[in-house]
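Slide 14.
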Amino acid sequence: MKSRFTLIAAIGLFICSCNNIPNTSIFEPLDTKTLAGIIKQDSLFTSFYEELQEKTSQFNEIEKAKFDDITYRKLYSMVEFSRDTSELNPKYRQWQQEWDDQFGMYAAKADSVIRYWEQYKKDNALDRFVKIEFSAIDKEYYSYSYDVKNVHFAFKLTPLKGKVDQIRFNYRYSAKINDVQYAESHSCISTAPFSTTVIRYWEADYRDERRLKYTTSSEFKRDYNIVFEITEVRKDGINYDIGDLDIPESVESVFKTDSVQYPALYQMRKDAVIADILYPDYKSRYEFIYGQFESLLHKNFPKEALFMDYADNK
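Slide 15: predicted structure.
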């Protein structure tokens, strides 16, 4: 959602009375004496006025004429209405109940959908064919010195269901202490068939080489987590591709989001699953309640609310 010109975001911060606000057009700058008097009573009016001036300065003459009857006092009245908890709290409770009655049932259904695809992905994951493990940091040295020339990752590949003809996979690693991801996902491919455990080598890129050239294998295991994702496998002449699973994009987004670390983002993506799979006309709790609030503003302050919509979209 847009900032709503941040007037509504600051609704609890304005304490001066509307009667102290001039009933003049918002396109007419306030004189220094008037502005000083308002700010003396409420210093927070400064940011309100500054942002309003910034927004209105972007209006051309036609746009100014369209909204010329919007006054500082009337615009501020909408702000005061927006912070009136005695007026709005009962409405928030009413809107919450309306949302629960209309959409609340889909939360549990979304959980079922996500669990279904989780199990489906697990049952059909390509790691059922091969287990990949970090083996070592392998280094090649210059013949004329003890300095490192090249760094390779050595990975152990173990077939789980017989001979594997080819495999393609990605890996990425991150620090165990602060969880900083030091490398983007790297792609590896092995075209030589294997039917028993093998060690295969892949050259580290320049950034990884600089970071790891003086790191031992045991230090890497101690300091980093490494994650593998198998994307393609050829076995018994059949190609298996992770894309063949055809998992809905909205569900994949949920899988990629940590619900504990990013609860708001997780909920937003879970809402997307509902709209994508269960009910196209679904609205999230926030979207529904905010929409009701917007409608109320447009009903009580039609011109001012329209102005704010227009200013936000310039």
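Speaker note: The chain has twelve helices and seven strands.
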